[in-house]
Amino acid sequence: MLGYVTIGTNDFDRATAFYDKVLAGLGGKRGMGGERMQGYVAEGGPMIMVCKPYDGEAATGGNGTMFALTAPSRDVVDKVHAEALAAGASDEGAPGERMPGFYGAYFRDPDGNKLCVFKMG
C-alpha cells in the first residue's frame, strides 16, 4: 500500500551522497529526481525521496518517526549499518535480535532522521 516516503534534508548534496552509499547495499538506485528532490528505488519496494522542504523551513527529524528498510539477510543488516556509520550516521542501536525473528539495527542520518534496517525471520 505504501508508494513512497519523503525524508527531509537541510543539505541536499550531503544527503544524496549519504543515501547513494547506504541504499546501495539494499539494492537502492537513484530514480526520478530534480534539483531539490532525489528518489531511490529498489525492486519490489516503495520509493524513498530525499528532499529539501517545500516551505523553505528547516528539515527536522520527527519525534517517534522512523523509516524501516528491509534487508535480505542479517549480514546485509550488519553491512548497511556499518556503511551508514562510515558515511556520517549516528548510531541508534547496533545490529542484533530485538525479539524472536526480528534482527535490526538503527541509525540517524546526518539530518537526524531515524532509520532502521532489518531482517524478519
Overall average pLDDT: 94
CATH homologous superfamily heading: 2,3-Dihydroxybiphenyl 1,2-Dioxygenase, domain 1
Helix content: 10-25%
Structural class determined from secondary elements: alpha/beta
Shape: globular
Radius of gyration: 14 Å
Q: Give a count of the beta strands, DSSP E runs of length 2 or more.
A: 8
User: Order of strands across the biggest sheet?
Assistant: 1-4-3-2
CATH topology: 2,3-Dihydroxybiphenyl 1,2-Dioxygenase, domain 1
Unreliable residue stretches: none
The CATH architecture assignment turns out to be: Roll
**What would CATH call the class?**
Alpha Beta
Name the beta content range.
35-45%
Count of separate structural domains: 1
Query: Largest beta sheet, briefly?
Result: 4 strands, mixed
Through-space gap between termini? 22 Å
So how many helices?
2
Q: What's the order of the H and E elements?
A: EHEEEEHEEE
